Amino acid sequence: EAEASAEGNEWATEVVKGLKRSSPTGLKITLRS
């Protein structure tokens, strides 16, 4: 479970990085989802 969680966090981090580059608004929407 720990490994799966870590992988999920890494994936989420990459998504957040991409959203920050493209659109701060998109980032806020993603965090609310």
What is this structure, in a nutshell?
The protein has 33 residues and is mainly α. 91% of the residues lie in helices and 0% in strands.
Q: What class would the helix/strand composition place it in?
A: mainly alpha
- Number of discrete helical segments: 2
Number of strands: 0
Order of helices and strands: HH
Quaternary state of the chains: single chain
Largest sheet: none
Count of domain modules: 1
Kindly report the average pLDDT value: 73
Radius of gyration: 11 Å
* Share of residues in strands: under 5%
Low-confidence stretches: none
Report helical residue fraction. over 70%
Structural shape? elongated
Gap from first CA to last CA? 22 Å
How does this structure look, described?
It is a single chain. This protein has one domain. The protein is elongated and about 30 Å long. The protein is mainly α. The longest helix has 21 residues. The mean pLDDT is 73.
